[in-house]
Design a protein that fits this description.
Elements: H1 12-28, E1 37-40, H2 45-57, E2 62-68, H3 74-90, E3 94-98, H4 109-128, E4 132-134, H5 139-151, H6 156-159, E5 165-169, E6 172-175, H7 183-192, H8 209-225, H9 229-255, E7 259-262, E8 265-268, H10 271-275, H11 279-293, H12 305-318, E9 324-327, E10 331-335, E11 340-344, E12 356-357, E13 362-366, E14 371-378, E15 391-395, H13 396-399, E16 404-406, E17 413-414, E18 423-424, H14 425-431, H15 436-439, E19 444-447, E20 450-454, E21 458-459, E22 472-479
Parallel strand pairs: 1-2, 1-4, 2-3, 4-6
Antiparallel strand pairs: 5-6, 7-8, 8-11, 9-10, 10-11, 12-16, 13-14, 14-22, 15-22, 16-19, 17-18, 19-20, 20-21
Helix pairs in contact: 1-7, 2-7, 5-9, 9-11, 11-12
Length: 482
């Protein structure tokens, strides 16, 4: 901040506010960079206090942005005129951003308005050539956020509340310099300087969770615990933010070799290794996989993410090889033999049509099925048959040269080893209780319409190795790496 000396005799509320604002500015790195700074400016007390203080003490060029959501009619227009006059009178560049808010957002109108507002601020930053946007969230906002997330069952990341600095997107950072300032201190600051602000009447609407908490529950808490309760909640958020960062580092290290993200989905394998991680680290892994499947979009709003992470954890540790879990946003988690994939729901994904010729010896990869088949040639007699579903020993002469790795086709037939005769593959999969939506994604080694191996299940009586077999092919299936 500018090292100008403050004149003696400044009102105490002004000194108190400025001292805490300076601390907050250091915490969020507000002056670590130069260049334009976009300031979200509603015209309410908190944003007015922030903009007024920044205009007097920041060395960065400011651009005030007032977002008009189009939800409050004439009152919103009144607030926009007030904001414009305030900036004009102080020589602060002003931008009015009008947005359209989706009325039918599945996460509610508040979430839709927040998304529209963030998009408008990001666009304003890009237009102004700014790499940072400052918002006027206060310590009271932080305490309310922590309390709401506590009741929602959030983990460490959620209970850490709002960070002093976070990513808005597009290389733009979101800064919150007032997280150490109480709401009442911002108002006292403005009153001492005889500066007016506007009141948003929707802040009295107790149909909104935050307003109910602010107007009903928080006064009870402060009467029971004292006015320092908000400071205590904010300190807890700082401690949890530090713990969450450490957990994120541990989780990121654990991801190495476990999580792969590609267009259209994410995959975690091997699950045996993932299952050995601490529970909190596993939760971070499932969160990262879910965000990867969404294309890097993190979960926002008050969706019960914790519940979905717990369900993913149960699926990974306890689910069968073809178990599934429907997730928000049209996603589905699918349990493999030692993998868990998250992507579009199966009914939205066409059955794989590609056939990949078997390499023997060598490795055959079918990317759509997510399987790698390793083949070795052998010449000695086979060991006694085992029950390893991901390994097979076949007679190379019976298999011939035309074997391919593929998904099922209409008319496929299969003669399970030891069974008296062949049958339709569909009937076999039904008897094995493979869910209908999973059947098109079971890897098969086939010769024409004859299935030699249903990977993960059984080999064919016709193609299995026998004591008299002269040439053998040893096969082992595994998840596709990376």
């Amino acid at each position: 901040m500018n090292p100008r000396r403050r004149p003696a005799g400044r009102p105490r509320p002004v000194q108190a506010f400025e001292a805490k604002a300076r601390e907050g500015a250091r915490a969020c790195g507000l002056e670590d960079e130069s260049g334009p700074l976009v300031v979200g400016f509603s015209g309410g007390a908190d944003s007015t206090a922030l903009l007024l203080w920044l205009s007097a003490h920041s060395s960065r060029p400011l651009v005030a942005v007032h977002v008009q959501h189009g939800l409050r009619g004439a009152r919103a227009e009144r607030d926009a005129r007030h904001a414009a006059r305030f900036c004009e009178g102080r020589g602060i560049p002003f931008r009015l951003a009008r947005v359209r808010v989706a009325q039918r957002n599945p996460r509610g109108l508040e979430a839709a308005a927040r998304e529209a507002r963030r998009g408008a601020l990001l666009a304003a930053a890009e237009k102004a050539g700014a790499r940072a946007v400052a918002l006027a969230h206060t310590l009271d906002d932080q305490a309310e956020t922590v309390l709401m997330r506590l009741f929602e069952g959030s983990g460490p990341a959620g209970l850490a509340g709002m960070r002093p600095a976070s990513t808005l997107g597009g290389g733009v950072t979101l800064l919150r310099p007032l997280l150490r300032v109480r709401r009442k201190e911002a108002r006292a600051y403005l009153r001492a300087l005889k500066v007016r602000w506007v009141e948003d009447e929707t802040n009295r609407d107790e149909g909104r969770l935050r307003n109910r908490l602010r107007r009903r529950l928080w006064p009870l808490i402060e009467r029971a615990l004292g006015s320092s309760a908000a400071e205590g909640a904010a300190r807890s958020a700082e401690h949890l933010a530090a713990a969450s960062e450490a957990l994120d580092a541990a989780t990121a290290e654990a991801w190495s070799g476990l999580l792969s993200v590609k267009e259209g989905g994410a995959r975690v394998a091997p699950l045996a290794r993932a299952a050995g991680l601490p529970r909190a680290v596993r939760a971070g892994l499932w969160r990262a996989a879910l965000e990867g499947a969404r294309g890097g979009v993190s979960s926002k709003g008050r969706s019960p993410l914790g519940r979905h992470l717990e369900a993913l954890d149960r699926l990974a540790r306890e689910g069968g090889p073809s178990a599934r879990l429907d997730l928000p946003g049209g996603l589905q988690a699918r349990r493999g033999y030692d993998s868990l994939a998250i992507g579009p729901r199966a009914e939205d994904v066409p059955a794989p049509r590609r056939e990949v010729p078997l390499k023997a010896p060598g490795t055959t990869i079918h990317a759509e099925l997510g399987v790698a088949l390793r083949a070795r040639l052998r010449r000695h007699a086979p060991p006694p048959p085992g029950a390893e579903p991901l390994a097979a020993l076949l007679d190379a002469d019976r298999l011939g040269e035309g074997a391919v790795l593929r998904a099922r086709r209409e008319g496929d037939r299969f003669h399970p080893a030891g069974a008296p005769g062949g049958r339709k593959l569909k009937e076999y999969l039904i008897d094995r209780k493979v869910p209908r939506e999973e059947r098109d994604r079971v890897p098969l080694l086939a010769v024409g319409k004859e299935v030699a191996w249903v990977v993960g299940h059984q080999v064919s009586e016709k193609f299995r190795a026998r004591p008299g077999s002269k040439r053998l092919i040893a096969l082992r299936a595994g998840p596709l790496k990376g």
